[in-house]
């Protein structure tokens, strides 16, 4: 039931781009993206509700492919402040979309 | 406006002891959640509540109990703590609007069971 995230970890130099993927074996109602800095609580980035929906937050954007049951998070022109662990959270149709189940996370490190 | 407050922030227990973690939110949110976070495992849902007086099991409910007697509070209890329950526990709350169930997290409670 837990979504799968890839890659597990990625190291970028400032200004480089990255893509983090999230996929589920179950039909999805929504996909959430959160970022967690070391020793802090996860912070909401964005939520995608409809298949094909794309959203953006500064230079971070995401897409949701409902048919493929997957979402991707795009980080462009990365900054040092983007470092952290990124989690996708999923709500599934079969569980009446009140439970948010998270993936194992992707550790992103941006270096100068 | 404090958001989601968890107490205590740190606790050390001996195997077999019991304790309760308190989560309080002041945003009038309907839904509340307890997650545990372990290295490489992400955030795993323990129990959740969709309203006062209701609770439901998540992915890893064994060894834990919860209560939601008041809308603003969600308590997580460990009746007989085990070393496998050493973890960081996060509480979250949400108020679904227009189908969007965005979670607000507390700062976390670090529990060590010896």
Description:
By secondary structure, chain A is mostly beta strands. In chain A, 0% of the residues lie in helices and 55% in strands. Chain A has strands spanning 4-6, 9-13, 18-23, 28-36, 43-48, 54-57, 60-65, 70-75, 84-92, 101-102, 106-111. In chain A, the strands form 2 sheets. In chain A, strands 2, 4, 5, 9, 10 and 11 form a 6-stranded mixed sheet that branches. In chain A, strands 1-3-8-7-6 form a 5-stranded antiparallel sheet, with no helix packed on it. In chain A, strand 9 (84-92) and strand 10 form a beta hairpin. The mean pLDDT of chain A is 90. Chain B is an all-beta fold. Chain B has strands at residues 4-7, 10-13, 19-25, 31-38, 42-49, 56-57, 65-67, 73-78, 87-94, 104-105, 109-113.
Short précis:
The complex is a heterodimer of chains A (112) and B (114). Chain A has strands at residues 4-6, 9-13, 18-23, 28-36, 43-48, 54-57, 60-65, 70-75, 84-92, 101-102, 106-111.
Number of strands of chain B: 11
List low-pLDDT spans of chain A. Answer: none
Low-confidence stretches of chain B: none
N-to-C series of helices and strands of chain A: EEEEEEEEEEE
Order of helices and strands of chain B: EEEEEEEEEEE
Assembly state: heterodimer
Indicate the radius of gyration of chain A in whole angstroms.
13 Å
Gross geometry of chain A: globular
Largest sheet of chain B: 7 strands, mixed
Please provide the count of β strands of chain A.
11
Strand content of chain B: over 45%
**How much helicity do the residues of chain A have?**
under 10%
Helix percentage range of chain B: under 10%
Over the alpha carbons, how many angstroms does the gyration radius of chain B reach?
13 Å
